[in-house]
Specification:
The complex is a heterodimer. By secondary structure, chain A is mainly α. Helices cover about 75% and strands about 0% of the residues of chain A. Classes of the chains: A mainly alpha, B mainly alpha. Chains A and B meet through α1, α3, α4, α5 and α11 of A and α1 and α3 of B.
Chain lengths: ~230, ~110
């Protein structure tokens, strides 16, 4: 009991410190970034969607390691779950509980629509809300619905992981191409004074690679979890 | 007011991490802390009347896109951390036969 009360007092003290720091809010945060991005964002990056412009151009180094962390996490999940997949005759978790017929039928109708919507979100990442990470998650969900339709179709997770490694290599290569055209690493490889619309080539290719990578990673993680069920 | 509310969400998550007796609940609390962080950062950039940061025409009054771009990173990393932690939970359950912190700290099978 004393522990809980002291914990609550400590948390209230942290809240008090936070509120006092928020009273001088302009020291923490100001409008400079917003003004810069809304004035120069489109002409610099060629992206109508400023968020995509930031994470694929200004902060591309950040996004590369974000994709690397996803790859490492997928490898970690594979490594931890590896023993039971091979040793024990693992059965799928969904197999034990019967899927309702209604669910299967609607999955068959929804599957192509979801796949199409995911691809739309990926390809239009620089024009509308979305991008590689979000669209990849939608595509992964669409692929996972296939498990409900037919459980016997399995995914070879190790092959998926290999494809994902090559996709990450492609990401690094495409983002390093700017060293030869612009003279600096990890930015758009199309020259800065080129026509703005050409810059979308880089954004679309990066979005497609990231989307495929995220979708494959999530499918691999989910398959590893399904194989754990017994 | 809104940043303070989202900071309270973070504190609730930390409180849950400190007192939860179940590993799965601890994983939930990590997710709550992450959600509070996302809300806090989105509150920094947003204001009333600000539009989404998509420049369909010039001169729009858009919100700051930088916190939103940072939060994409947080969401992806949060999902990977959750999946790794849950996979470890499965392994711990197979090894110790329980997911209570008390049983695991004793170390008996």
């Amino acid at each position: 009991m004393i522990k809980k009360i002291s914990l609550i007092l400590l948390l209230l003290f942290i809240l008090f410190v936070f509120i006092t720091s928020m009273s001088s809010f302009s020291d923490i945060y100001n409008n400079a970034g917003k003004i810069f991005f809304s004035q120069n964002g489109y002409t610099d990056t060629g992206s109508v969607n400023l968020v995509t412009g930031i994470y694929l151009d200004y902060r591309l180094f950040d996004s590369l390691f974000e994709a690397a962390i996803l790859l490492i996490a997928v490898s970690g999940v594979m490594l931890i779950s590896e023993h039971t997949i091979d040793e024990k005759n693992a059965t799928f978790m969904i197999d034990k509980q019967k899927t309702p017929e209604l669910f299967v039928t609607f999955s068959r109708i929804l599957y192509p629509i979801m796949l199409l919507f995911g691809i739309y979100v990926i390809v239009n990442g620089h024009l509308s809300p979305g991008g590689g990470f979000q669209g990849g998650a939608i595509v992964a969900t669409a692929i996972l619905i296939l498990y409900y339709i037919d459980i016997r179709k399995t995914v070879d997770v190790h092959r998926v992981l290999t494809i994902e490694k090559f996709l990450f290599l492609g990401l690094v290569v495409i983002s390093s191409l700017s060293f030869f055209t612009r003279g600096e690493l990890f930015t758009n490889f199309i020259p800065l004074d080129a026509n703005i619309e050409y810059k979308a080539i880089f954004l679309t290719s990066m979005n497609i690679l990231i989307g495929a990578k995220v979708a494959l990673g999530l499918v691999a993680i989910f398959t590893a979890f399904l194989k754990e069920g017994r | 007011m809104n940043p303070i509310l989202s900071f309270i969400v973070i504190l609730i998550g930390i409180y849950g991490l400190a007192i939860s007796k179940n590993i799965i609940k601890s994983v939930f609390c990590i997710t709550i802390v992450e959600a509070g962080t996302i809300l806090l950062f989105l509150n920094f950039g947003a204001y009333e009347g600000g539009l989404i940061p998509i420049l369909t025409s010039l001169g729009l009054d858009v919100v700051d896109p930088l916190p939103q771009a940072l939060m994409i990173t947080t969401i992806v990393i949060g999902s990977t951390i959750t999946s790794l932690a849950l996979m470890l939970c499965i392994k711990i359950f197979h090894h110790y036969g329980s997911i209570e912190w008390k049983v695991i700290f004793k170390g008996d099978k």
